[in-house]
Give the backbone structure.
Amino acid sequence: MALEESRRLSQIKTKLECRAKILGGIRAFFSGDGFLEVDTPLRVPAIAPEQFIIPYLSEGWFLSTSPELQMKRFLASGYTKIFQICHCFRKDERGRHHNPEFTMLEWYRAGADYRQIIQDTEDLVLFLTHRLGYGSTLNFQGTKIDLTLPWPEITIRDAYLRWAGWDPFLNFDGLKFDDDMVTKIVPNFPIDRPVVIRDYPTECAALARFKTEDSTNPQAAERAEVFIAGLEIANAYSELNNPEEQEKRFRLEIEQMQIAGKPCVWPQKFMEAIPHMPDCGGIALGVDRLVMLLCDTNLIDDVIAFPADRL
Amino acid sequence: MNIEEVTKNTKLLIDNTPFSVETVEFVKPGKGRAIYKFRLRNLFSGNVLDMTFHSGDKVEETSVTVHEMQYLFQEGDNYIFMDSSSFEQIPMIKNQIGDKGGFLKEGTPVVIMMWENRPIDIQLPKVVELKVIETSASLKGATITAQNKEGKLETGVIVGVPAFVKEGDIIKVDTRTGSYIERVGSK
């Protein structure tokens, strides 16, 4: 066993070195832009109620599934530009692109909306590829991915009408929405360009505010996701800071979770902070997936020294 | 069992048929439902089937066990095997064994898969040695390149053999294809 482990760890050493460079690059990028690196607890009494994110329990508390609620409490207290790199835990998520303990990068910018946060993401990825000497082209699994700006964007409604043949804003069907995303939408994305897909039904954007900039689809929430090479890399919101709307969305979510017998706790401290939150944008980016892309591997185990089933 | 607990080689009962899970692909939109794509092998027919499940789904696990056995003898429509560790005797009907029956002689080691105390599949050794009991007389000067003729083996099966093989010879036969491999000796 020890021999197999040392062989494996030497095989992935270059990738782990690349990972360390990327983490250094992320910190350089944000501190260069005046962001404060923060550090919130991994073990917390309440997490955002989200039906399809299963937490690990810890003595009646939870292992953090995302640092979002604590980071928003910073924003409510007057912090304007913050970022964090931390571990998150999501039960039963294991596969080629999933490990139940993974590394998340989150950043929040007061006064920004989701479109500006997507621009940050574009800038960050290009900053890292230049730093690693790749320029604006990424070689991933035999495909050259052109990262030049702007990245192609498509709305959820257009994507579902074009590739799945239905409009999720007419009769929302969550199960069909998720299935089609995986089997019909993402597989149709161009493979040689990143893709930003945006403006989700509120049923799949519990913490994003309603669309404000135009009225063509007032039911949409300002949520955007970045996909590169079919990999879901990051999820951005114009953050919801309306306490009544947030309470309504969480109540709906909790109702479903209680029916399914899933553990959930009302995030009281976060709810108290919402009225003080400025308009802001934020994002959660999967660091392991980003490292996979930049290290040209399609297997998350190649960029994590000790995946869950090798502990 | 919960869908999350299924791994490669888990045996599932679907529509009253046992399947073995060959591959599991886990896909999940970050905020969405987990999707499990399974490639399943039907343990009766060997056919492969792809199925998709979601988090929250439940499936029925079934236990298929693998036993090392020895062939003993035929009895009516059954072949009788003996479990090499428990010495228990298990009958398996001829239809289930099909052509493989032609390569079974007393003492042949086999592997049998059992489901709910019923044998569902049998694996033979890749190569068996059997005696030729009947074949037309060999031609003088025949070589291995000469045309094949038929040879009846001690188990009753008929295989193609080279012209030089004669009654009483022991030959190696590939059980997957039923083809002659080589002559290993003679009576």
Summary: The longest strand of chain A covers residues 101-110. The two ends of chain A are 12 Å apart (CA to CA).
